[in-house]
Amino acid sequence: MGFVAFIGAGPGAADLITVRGARLLAQAEVVLHDALTDPALRELAPQARWIDVGKRGFCDSVAQTSINALLVRHGRADRRVVRLKGGDPSVFGRLEEELEALLAAGIDCEVVPGVTAAIAAAAATRRPLTRRGSGRSVSLSTAMTAVAGPRPAAGAPATHAAGPLRATRTADTEVIYMAGKQLAALGRQLAQAGWPADTPVSVVSRAGWPDQIHSDHRVETLAGAALLHAGRPTVVTVGAGARPVQAAAGHDDAAAIAAVPTPSGAARTPPAPRARNP
Amino acid sequence: MGFVAFIGAGPGAADLITVRGARLLAQAEVVLHDALTDPALRELAPQARWIDVGKRGFCDSVAQTSINALLVRHGRADRRVVRLKGGDPSVFGRLEEELEALLAAGIDCEVVPGVTAAIAAAAATRRPLTRRGSGRSVSLSTAMTAVAGPRPAAGAPATHAAGPLRATRTADTEVIYMAGKQLAALGRQLAQAGWPADTPVSVVSRAGWPDQIHSDHRVETLAGAALLHAGRPTVVTVGAGARPVQAAAGHDDAAAIAAVPTPSGAARTPPAPRARNP
């Protein structure tokens, strides 16, 4: 009886899906997909029926119930179902509700992890989220949260309301998802949470896409990013992980590099000399 | 002049690398790789020279200097170099030092993100790190940290010392990397940080591998995980993200599923009260 593979599609560009995810897509009969995934992903599963269950433009809680029901219906029909989610399913992906529905229906499933947006933004800007000495912890949170509290009962009228924007200073690097619409408010909140006004803030929208935009700010000037990233999926990185990496002093010493210390004494063949291009 | 691709190999199993990472590996001439990556990854680049620069068994800081120098040497030799790192390069991957060395040497590079261990463990156990209502933030930190302070100068004698174990309660879900050797101490630290004694803790070693081990604990009984996961790469998840997902009540109503509600809001069966997790 049916099987659902939850697959993290990665942050956008189709080739940031995992090899496992791509393989399972190629075997899918039905693909329920979010709005944000790269259309090129379709080429990985031309045989499948693709159903857009992206939540844009209508109420989240109603949409979630529909998605759950679609998963169960297709799973029960004994189809190989893929639920393709942007980024990673376990990070701000509403995975719990969908797993709950499948468990209740007795449908087996697998979760294939993906590259989450925080990590994609770090890679695209070459700014590691952790830094030796100064960046020992990373926090992932979201600026767009429903009001905390008990989940509305299924069937109850949708009570979707944006919760208060919450910005904290609990880690050396804070990454805030879905902040695109609230950059000015976020800057104020970060200052109130104790981040110094000159703390670096790196803002990336559509990380890893050809039309990626990256801009550098400080906590006190974050509002200036609002227009630039308007209407685009945006990740905001604050603190240690937002700093540009600087060239090391001393590392371009030719003698030191030629001497490369051998860690364990294990013999390594020195690479064959090869003509270097000018 | 040379080019280095930093590639996140994912948490272990070779097919959790990204499609982009796999493609770049296939073009590599030299691969500098960590100790933890799946040997099956070699099949993606049989043409390349594979150099193990894993840090096991010798001093980290000396090893890091060697790795930096090797990257620069091979980059300068105009080779297509891949630096293959376990998990994601930007999360506890010591990426900054290597980028600094390449920048100093004027060698261009790219960072290809990967699946980090926290996310792989969540997927393997089907326990999302974020949960609607109860899991709005995730913290990534490590139990194994060098003493904070200025980095030793390049070439200086290694002054590697394990820093104090630090456990916090700053997010709804805390994930602690590299905790395998300190599980008993970690349990005490988590209690001191304010986590209730009965907070669920999920421990996963070798996430996503055939020999993965997963065990459930509470903060007060975490010490009991030590023997089970001894000597294995281990990720510890605490709080909201550690709870097993429970079957939803009401979602297996056949009529409701057949009727798949439309986004505008069809009637749904209210669920029975949700069971609390132990």
From TrEMBL, chains A, B:
Its EC number is 2.1.1.107. It comes from the Bacteria. It is an enzyme of class 2 (transferase). GO terms for biological process: methylation; siroheme biosynthetic process. Pathway: Porphyrin-containing compound metabolism; siroheme biosynthesis; precorrin-2 from uroporphyrinogen III: step 1/1. GO terms for molecular function: uroporphyrin-III C-methyltransferase activity. Residues 4-216 form the Tetrapyrrole methylase domain. Keywords: Methyltransferase, Porphyrin biosynthesis, S-adenosyl-L-methionine, Transferase. It holds the Pfam family TP_methylase. PANTHER family: S-ADENOSYL-L-METHIONINE-DEPENDENT UROPORPHYRINOGEN III METHYLTRANSFERASE, CHLOROPLASTIC, SIROHEME SYNTHASE-RELATED. Belongs to the precorrin methyltransferase family. This is uroporphyrinogen-III C-methyltransferase. It comes from Piscinibacter sakaiensis (Ideonella sakaiensis).
